[in-house]
Amino acid sequence: HRLRLAGGKSHCEGRVEMEQAGKWGTVCDDGWDLADANVVCRQLHCGWALHARDNATFGRGTGLILRDDVSCKGHEDHLWDCPAIREHDCSHKEDAGVVCSEHQQWRLSGGRDGCAGRVEVFFRGTWSTVCDSTWYEMEASVLCHMLGCGLPLERPSFNHTLPGKMLYECTRLQPSLAHCKWTYNKSAPCHQSRAAGVICNGM
User: Fold this and answer.
1) Closest by alpha carbon to 70, among 21, 25, 33?
2) CA dihedral for 136, 138, 141, 142, sign (positive or negative)
3) Which of 131, 184, 201, 203 has the most CB atoms lying inside 10 A of its own CB?
4) What pTM, to 2 d.p., does this model score?
5) For residue range 89-106, what is the model confidence (pLDDT) as tens digits?
């Protein structure tokens, strides 16, 4: 047995897919709830579940539907340890999904378009700003590239007005900032920092 999330914006959100006898398949959303989602998030080292999604929120899977009426208590080590029915009456439009607390997504706010502004990250259920103490060309390049916004032109600074603070350190161009070294709500490296911003060229 193996488990993965597909169709999301990070490895900590997406459609729940499990492998059985060498074939990958999905899980039906009948009875799918936060206790089930929690087991998935913990098993994948993605923290806890923020949302249990239904109706193929992350797109329809293909292949087998391996579980229906999953009813985890929430403490199980693996999704396949939970009671469930192997026979199902589902189609892939009922594929179950999860959003876990360690999922990160980004936006630029307050700029002229989605490719400029203050960097904000959604993490552990809340939006946070990013400390500019280590916000250099490489970090800005990763974000612009990931947002489909081309290359960074400028890195303006803003005020921190959100409850959390994230710090990123990238040594090379990664597929997303979550792949770089990051720390959350550590006061020392963010002391006297401002909130990072970026203006990408939008190309």
Assistant:
1) 33
2) negative
3) 131
4) 0.83
5) 899 999 999 999 999 999
